[in-house]
Amino acid sequence: MELPIRTRTELETMREAGRVVAAALAAAAAAAVPGAKLAHLDDIARTVLHEAGASSPFLGYQPSWAPSPFNGVLCLSPNEMVVHGRPSGRRVKEGDLLSIDAGAAVDGWHGDAAVTVHVGDPRPADAALRATAEEALAAGIAAAVLGATLADVGAAIDAVVRRDGYAHLLDHGGHGIGRSMHESPFVFNEPTPDGARHRLAAGNTIAIEPMVLRGDGRYRYKRDGWAVYAADGDRAVHVEHTVAVTDDGPLILTAA
Ligand code: MG
């Protein structure tokens, strides 16, 4: 099955959106100091998007499974949360591990990326988990080359995560991206038969996002119906980039 092929102009616009995403993430990450409110980080990112003339695909987003429209421009998922945490009055503390996920749209084209940051000094076990997740993301990106399949991308991510004895968040992964933030196909974090059916060509754009857990990958939803947390309550790391497949190799559209 073929993924959509973006023109050079479309990729340039997605790169613009990606730069806004990177700026929003950097601003929020810099403000993630002990005592900072999650809602304050979201306000900072809103300002970045607003000043860039970009819109937020997160704000008001309500997929079929969600009980309410999303309330921010960032997903902020501390500690036990893996993804989809809502901005709130919760304050981050020294030693917290915070996933920050941002999206932006420019002229109808989208970027989506996430970082996980330590609040204050990292716990060694958290630093190790983060290093693995970042290496897995880099491996997945490096595998997104002409002629490879999405199963190759998944296998590259999976090899790093398994090597270090961690698990993937079950039932979650990356996705196609372009005119919408979430497009088919799924970009699984391990090799699958579905992934093997999608061969990559120049101009394809995908969001690659390892979600790495110390436990077995099982999860539950918070009472708000949005935030996904590890069933065993242990910590997780989530990192993401939007990537274009090009004749010259993978291009990270959400790089700073
Ligand atoms: Mg995504």
Top keywords for this entry?
alpha+beta; five-stranded antiparallel β-sheet; three-stranded antiparallel β-sheet; globular; binds magnesium ion
Describe how the helices and strands are arranged.
Blueprint: H1 8-31, H2 38-52, E1 74-78, E2 81-83, E3 97-106, E4 109-118, H3 124-142, H4 150-163, E5 167-168, E6 174-176, E7 183-187, H5 193-196, E8 205-208, E9 211-213, E10 219-221, E11 228-230, E12 236-238, E13 241-246, E14 249-252
Antiparallel strand pairs: 1-3, 2-11, 3-4, 5-9, 6-7, 6-8, 8-13, 9-12, 10-11, 13-14
Helix pairs in contact: 1-2, 3-4
Magnesium ion (MG) binds at residues 112, 175, 207, 209, 240.
Keywords: Aminopeptidase, Hydrolase, Metal-binding, Protease
GO molecular function: initiator methionyl aminopeptidase activity; metal ion binding; metalloaminopeptidase activity
Enzyme class: hydrolase
Describe this structure in words.
The protein has 256 residues and is α+β, with helices and mostly antiparallel strands. It has one domain (8-252): Creatine Amidinohydrolase, CATH 3.90.230. Helices cover 30% and strands 25% of the residues. The protein contains 5 helices and 14 strands. The protein has helices at 8-31, 38-52, 124-142, 150-163, 193-196, and strands spanning 74-78, 81-83, 97-106, 109-118, 167-168, 174-176, 183-187, 205-208, 211-213, 219-221, 228-230, 236-238, 241-246, 249-252. The strands form 4 sheets. Strands 7-6-8-13-14 form a 5-stranded antiparallel sheet. Strand 10 and strand 11 form a beta hairpin. It starts with 7 loop residues before the first helix and ends with a strand. Magnesium ion binds at residues 112, 175, 207, 209, 240. The site of magnesium ion has 5 residues, from loops. It comes from uncultured Mycobacteriales bacterium. Its EC number is 3.4.11.18. Its cofactor is Co(2+); Zn(2+); Mn(2+); Fe(2+). Monomer.
